[in-house]
Description:
heterodimer, A: alpha/beta, Rossmann fold, Arc Repressor Mutant, subunit A, 2 domains, 5-stranded parallel β-sheet, 4-stranded antiparallel β-sheet, 8 helices, B: alpha/beta, 7-stranded mixed β-sheet, 25 helices, 24 strands, flat
Amino acid sequence: MSAATGQRVLVIDDEPQIHRFLGPALEAAGYAVERADTARDGLRLAAARAPDVVLLDLGLPDLDGQEALVTLRSFSSVPVIVLSARDRDAEKIAALDHGADDYVEKPFSVGELMARIRAALRHARTRDSVPEQFSAGRLSVDLATRQIALAGEPIALSPREFALLEILVRNAGRVLTHRQLLIAVWGPAHGDDVQYLRVYIGHLRQKLGTDASLIATEPGIGYRLLTAE
Amino acid sequence: MSEQRPDPDALLAAAMREGRGRLKIFLGAAPGVGKTWKMLAEAQRFRRAGIDVLAGVIETHGREETRAQADGLPVLPMRPVAYRGRMLEEFDLDAALTKRPSLLLIDELAHDNAPGSRHAKRWEDVLALVSAGLTVWTTLNVQHLESLNDDIARITGVRVSETVPDRVLDRADEIELIDLSPADLRARLQEGKIYRPDNAARALDGYFREGNLAALREIALRRTASHVDDAVRGWMRDHRVAGPWPVAERVLALVGPGAAGEAVIREARRIADALHAPLLALHVERPAKPAGERPPLALATLLGAEVEVRSGNDLVGVVLSFAAARNVTRIVIGRRVRAGLVQRLRRRNLALALLRRAGPYALVVVADSPAPHPKGVAKPAFRPDAVRWTALTWAGATALVAAVTLAGLWWNLLAEQETIGMVFLAVVVSAATLRGLALALYTAMIGFLAWDFFFIPPVHQITISDAHDAVALLVFLLVAGLTGWLGGKVRAEATAGQARIESLRRIGTFSRRLGVPATEPELLAEIVRQAAAIAERAVLLVVPDQPGDSEPEMRAAEPAGARLDQASLAAARWSARHQVETGRGTVTLPSAAWRFLPMRTRAVPAEGKAGPGGTKGGTVQASMAVLGVQPPHDDAPALQALETLVDQAAIALERVRLTGVAARSAAMEDTQKLRTALLNSLGHDLRTPLTGIRGAAETLRESWEGLSPEVRIDLLSSIEEDTGRMTRFLANIMDLTRLESGQIVPRLAPVELGGVIEAAIARVPGAAYATVALPPEPQGRTAQADAILLEQVLVNVLDNAAHYAPRWSHIALRVARLGGGAGGDEIRIDVADEGVGVPEADLPHLFDSFFRGTRGDRTRPGTGLGLAIARGLVEAMDGRISAISPRPDVPRDAAPGMMVSIHLKPAA
Lengths: 229, 908
């Protein structure tokens, strides 16, 4: 586990039990932890302390989780990981569409949460510098030259397939909802045409061959391009 | 009118065949032709082919060939029946229905079952089996056919008492004629293959005379041929082969009482068979006449006639209007040979009147053979009250005549004797109007005598001297007779009309009354009450628990306390399952003390089509209920009225049941909602502690080194706490289950509330900042309650308050005694918090199971059960619980909060 050097994590959750173990766990991993029990406290802390990543529970007593997310996004682009229940897919999708970067399902594994936090932090670091190069497994992508190669062998993609791969690469490690992908590749009019997406993801996976598993399905939510971790 | 389309009756018959098994009849002309042998031979062939054959009844009559042929066939054990100290063996219908073989053999279709069996006749057992979907083979001698009964008795001189209705033969899917020439049959008889030698010799000279056998053989051949003809026509209809359809004939038998009626029905059956025409039987009741001998309507039903009973005084008019309405082509009427002069005149008049007005009908007049009067035919019952009543009227009439005579004697000085005659006439007319023709004639007679004796010269003598007086007397007699007759007729028709109106009124009342009850027991009680009023007999209702297989149960009776014996129960069960009338006066289980009318709501053919399972055809449901009438009511109009009522009652019952179903499905929907809420709640309330436990355990394992000892201990205790939370949740669910199933019984006693409240506060960690205000006087803080349960109520309420209020906020408890008032004396415990409060719309649901407010998952974790349990417990202690939000004494600028109030009874 790589030691995070004093990066600040804001945990917004009304469950004292969550804070009780998340605090020590995050601190042990080298993060500085800010704790908030309500959405209002959380937003105040997010504004005042400028955390590097926010863990947000959607079931807060004082404010709707989605509203809190929208408010947060109005002043900050901090990575947000949503803590949510498995049976609330609609809530997760809404949160992702409202600008959340990722989610974990309760009851979650601490190890998995840590990995998600690291991915989110890494993504935030590279977001501004626009990574034109990406490689994972045997796949290498150069967005500037539009060169895609599998184990050194160049592969040809249609413009749509490339557009789809490009947005996945730019958000590598993050989950993207069906809607986000559809709007980015096909435009706002096709936000609900999930079957387009299935077809093109299928094409992409076919062309990736043995590395098809790099494009991970988040059932009922969307897709995520796995990074080489 | 020629038929160019399939006959609906034929289509119905075909449809009825769909759901049932096949019936094959081995038909013979006489005993010994080898029916049983042939049936067994074919059955053996089937058995060797691997078909599941079962011998239900096989009568070998001691014939060796037959016994050999039966070897190896599985045999259904016979059912022993005790009858008058003897043990008889009968076919076991229920066992056969249970075993359901692919092919069932039942010998001797015409057999009469021992009294007490389910059916009086074996052919009814067979029809029931076929209806239940079993394939049955059976044997029959042609002389047992009901419609041939008279003919064969005439030919052979032997009347067969065991008969089978022709419709059974008509229903057979296949008839195989076992033909043997008379010579061969006699040869077999001589060889002793049929009867033992001594009997055989007698038989050769009697029944087995060559001529007899030839005639019987011809009849059997004809019947088989006509059935084949039916089969061909059926096939043509099924396959819509256009053909030269015969003109549609309909035969109407006009059924009078007694043996003459029977002869008419039999003749009509034969005519209808010859014409391939449907048979209708009509009996016309004359309302003015007391019921005498009964018409043989049961026989008509047996012979497959559609039976109809009408009432009216104009016999010819009723017959003709019925015939016209039913497209009858032929009318069969009887003529009573030994009847008296008046009756003979009337009969001839009927035949003549029918002929005169009959128009298009062909008329057949049947002479009835003077058959011996069967024993046991019910004579009109002796009714003492009726006799007394009649005697009174006649005495009254005599007294009236005497009074008029006395008055006349006194008046004689003033009036002419003709005037007296007029007064006598008035007496006669009033007698006729009040009591009918007989009394009128009687009054006329004694009036005439009194007039002659006392008033007409020579006075005090019966003789008449003056011709003028003789004419006057004759005219008097004539006028008296005529007016008496007219008056009696008017009265009879008025009575009949009144009876009809009464019957209509009753039916109207009945359907109106049936609309009122909302629950099934009320409705059942109302049905028997009304039905008993109409039938003027004891009536009861038997209801199968579920349509189909379950045991019927008596649910309502009028008068209350009627009992059902075993036979009646069996009849009721049969009626419910097979949708037929059973019991006394019917062909099924006539030994039962009651008559049962099935209540059916869908159009179901009268003959039981449903099998014991009731669902064979898919469209038939068993009766919803069965109406029992006791003693059997042979009064046809009342029975018809009852049948109408039964139909209406069935509809009403179905309505009530459907209402019940609707209510139940609404309840189911509620249950469904509750289940969803439960799942949501379970999801949330189990997930939160699980997350805590998993997170803490994982942190401890992964980062043990990096954690301070205090943190390690804190994480460990958080695991303990979360486990405790899950345990509490589970306990709450168990509590609620026990509460809802009524397993918690409170022990009420005076309870000092201060102590209970302290104990409860101590148990709720979040309620540390609670304050308690108690009234100073002991009776103000002593309630009638169960201390343990009340403590649990308070723990739950406090827990809820602590949950929804900010940490360490103030919770105020106050006890107050509220005296008098409309709500009565009560002790109230208020628990007020400073939490976020509850929206007004949610308040009514606050105490429902799994209710968690509209904010769902975002509320603080709780079971959603605490307040529901609190309410259950309080209500078990005869108290109630309520909540208001915001709390009435909310401080300025504070959270709205909520106040829960527990209302208890003060200690006595």
